[in-house]
Amino acid sequence: MAALCETFTLCGLGPSGGVGLGAGVLALEPGPDSDHVLLTDRGRTATLFKVSDQKPLGCWSVKHGQVITCPVVCNFETHEYIAVHDDKVLRIWGDEDVNLDKVFKATLSADVYRIHSLPHGEPLVLFKGGGVRTLDVLLEAPQQEIENFISDEVIKWSEAFLEGQEPILIFATEKDGEYFIYIQKFKLNILHKYKLEQQESSNPLSFTAYIKNQIITLLCLYSNDSIYKVLIPLQQHSEEKEQILSKSLLLKLSVSGSVLKGTSFAVLDKDHVAVLGSLTAFGEESKECLTIWNTKFQTLQTSKELPLGTSGQLWCYGEKFFFTHGKVLTVIIYKCETSSLAAAVGKLKDSQTSDVSFLNWNTLSEEELVVSLQSQQSVTPKSESKMTLRSRRSSVAKVPPDTLTAGQLLLDIKDSASAVVEEGLKQLLSKAQMPDVQATIGCVIPALINRCKTDPMFYPQNFLVQLIQKRELSYSLCPDLMAVALEKKDMHLLQLCLQRFPDIPEEITYACLKLFLSISDDYLERTDVNLDSIICYIDIESNNKGVKNEIVENGFNTELEEFYRDTTFTKETLLKNDGEFCPVGPQKAALLNAVLHSAYSETFLLPHLKDLPAQQAVLFLRYLHYLYVKCSEKINTTLPGVLSPTINQIMDWMCLLLDAHFTVMVMLPEARGLLSSLHKFVRAQVRFYSELNKIEGSLQELQRLKLQKDSQAYSIEVLELI
């Protein structure tokens, strides 16, 4: 069984995407670990992303006039990056390098097609003429002559593996409509050439391969909407120079009269493949979609429509799909389970498995919903299948708790009384250990949200809160939930979503920030807000009474006090601007901390922040200043508490807010003192760290002497710092 799960955006691709990918994506390669990927555009730039944070960690570009001509890869042995620009110029650099003009450079004697990096081996460099070198051998003599085995053929695809300790390279070429497969063994320095059996009136569009037990399995996606399999044993005893590889049909990409015109695909496990392409039905407009197929039972397991279009490229790393969708690079997490016939056809009968299918219940009409429920009833006992849907709806209250199905619950949510719905929701929460409960929740939440939109009196707040607290949910699974919470001004639910959802759009994050800043502290005192993130550094009882909250540890306030003595600010201005007292109530502070905790992209958030009213921007900046001072009082610059903002989050938001409102801040009289205070405070810190830097060498020397000298049980030493 396979399913598509959480979806989120990794980065933008257009001119406003912030990553310089307006020319399109050349390739996506794995980074130094499983949470990093390397993105190469069809121009000058390579970018390293941390997928879980959806943020770039590094970006490198070649000079204007130069073009990166093959995907940038990571050398897993040295954690360095390797690129080729203008076909022959090799560059190697590390994370700390900024300017590619100053990193290692080698000009090669032949054009490079691709570099393949292996997890426990030296990278392999494949040249356009078919010659192959390991990177270390190539760097010994960059101008060494490279063989040209395929002068009239064009390389279409290549891949590298490790079989035992031996690197194996396979690549496909094309000449006059004929396709050839080459396999390079490095230990014996042997190159095998094969001819791929021709398929009448169709050509291969995409290749992929894997190796197991000394056999390479080559999969080919053809233009006749089929995937073929070719087995190539590594142990060859034939003396033929050019053997013909026969292929067998693995999968026909058609279902219920619709045909998938695939453009690229990936192998997920021994029984599942993912195909990206256009699903076409007779008399209907084609729709681009991502699909997962079961090759063992020839069934379509799941699909996702992509209305904004794709580039036709698909990458798969670490149970995540990567592909372009419109003007963004999208990531979808997937899962694959052991294949069985019952699971493949959606009729898996298990005493502990719910009856929900992987359907988008939110988009089904009432008639389609009834049909879907009837099809699910076909796997229930005969006595139950005789009941009509109408009788099941009317007698739902009499059904024992352990027999309530997802279909019944969905029908109840549609128009039943709140008490009936709440009872069904309690039963759903009590089934937390069921294997398919996550899929059930994915169906139930959209139905609840739709009911909330149409019925103003219906709002199961307690259930929604429990659901977010107990389950691993995301914004993409319930995209309208936060919109409803904003409309209801449900502060507790919004706080939980900001803390737990990893993929909240910047527009929603801004809407939450604006709401939190606009609501009065008096109103928030009557709301249920989790104060765990502020309880350890804000004195709730004395916060609004001008009482100092904590003892200063690092002594930064000394210079600030001197600064204030030299100014003409009033006492009221001092209290507002010195950052010593929290400018907002504890509930509002906890809500703002949730905003600081949420992930965002500066490129997409900045335009929204510019719309923040000036008074709210000043208030938010005062609170950030307060947090900044609090962090600086601590020796480790870390605030206590659960989910408290870090110094990096505070600084990032402060810079972002100043970028969005600097002109307004300068013009507002009430903000000038705050900006001046920030300036003085930062200057005091810079001076403090500058003094620390002066004695850094002496401290390191003391540490070295301490390690070298083995002191007795008791000794007195006098060390002089010069």
Automatic annotation (TrEMBL):
One Pfam family named in its UniProt record: NOL11_N
Domain Nucleolar protein 11 C-terminal: from-to ranges: 409-721
Subcellular location, record wording: Nucleus, Nucleolus
GO-annotated molecular function: RNA binding
InterPro entries for the chain: NOL11, Nol11_C, NOL11_N, WD40_repeat_dom_sf
Any one Gene Ontology cellular component term annotated for this protein: nucleolus
Main subcellular location of this protein, as a coarse class: nucleus
UniProt entry tagged with the keyword Nucleus: yes
Keyword vocabulary terms for this entry: Activator, Nucleus, rRNA processing, Transcription, Transcription regulation
Gene Ontology terms describing biological process: maturation of SSU-rRNA
Nucleolar protein 11 N-terminal domain mapped to chain residues: 1-335
Protein name per its UniProtKB record: NOL11 protein
Taxonomic source organism: Nothocercus julius
Gene symbol of the encoding locus: Nol11
